[in-house]
Amino acid sequence: MKYSKFLFWTPRILTVLFALFLMIFSLDVFEGSSSAGEIAIGLFMHNIPSFGILLFLYFSWKKEYIGAIVYPLLGCAYIFFAWGRFDILAYIFISGPLFIMGFLFYMNWRMRKSGNDSVPPGAASISSILIILLLSSCASSKSDLGLAYKGEVKRNLSTEKVSVYFVFSHIKETVGLDAIPKLENRFQRLNGFDDIFYEAQKNLSNVGKFATYIEEADDVNNPKKRAEKDSLMKVFDYTVKIRIEKKNYFSRMALGTIFSTLSVTLIPVPYTKYYSVKTEILDSSNKLISEYSRNFEITNWWQMFLCVVYPFHPETRKTEEMYLEFLKDIFRQIESEGIFKKL
What we know:
This protein is α/β, with parallel strands linked by helices. The protein is built from 10 helices and 7 strands. The longest helix is centred in the N-terminal third of the chain and has 27 residues, at 88-114. The chain is elongated and about 85 Å long.
């Protein structure tokens, strides 16, 4: 059976669809109160990768070896420069199509060079399934905040300011894959966390001087940094330790991936991350004053038709909303209970 038309058009159509998929990520420029000029500039800047993809398609249209070389290189470049910043699915859904596009352009080039316009039986079906899977997208949903404060919300009437040292630990674990929970590095942590904390801490009315510290895995090899942290805990009136742990399950993710593949993503499949937050408040003598817990979930739903929904329900936005919610909730409870008092 002849597949010359299929093999000719598949990489070209896939490239256009992939460029359109990347353009979806630029739709967030319409949020807020930006002017028409700012929106136009934002759209242009966000879509430079898509323009590049289409430009290389122009050069690869009759010289398929260009696409066979360039697209896999772009996929490798994305993995190299973005490694450690995102979950593994991000690399699969960005670099994966680039590798497939390169492979199909290579097959197209070989077919043209050899004059043989047939490909092995089943190649059309396999390629079509891979294209659908790799162009699939997600929309995120969030749960309610678990163990949220239900008491009366009131302001601390104390006029005396206290000094507070905030110590944050950002932990992640893939159960079934990781042997132990691991501290996230600065690329893996939620981008913009400092802004979220700055907004949330406004709920603490009598906090004067404060400082923040984020635990890193390499602190174990930095005695000077550990000593500085311990000394500051003695200097400040209070230390607030906030441990944010993100957990998902490898077995569920693997089963979800298999089910998603078998259904060609026609049925949405959820990938859930479970968050737990533990807060401890200690005084300058390292005595535990109070402790709080919160939990919530962020779920990504993968399905190819959700690509049009994604810009309005991205995981980052849902995660930022929940981070702000749990920090505000914890700080409101601390404020309402009058925990921070001048010693």
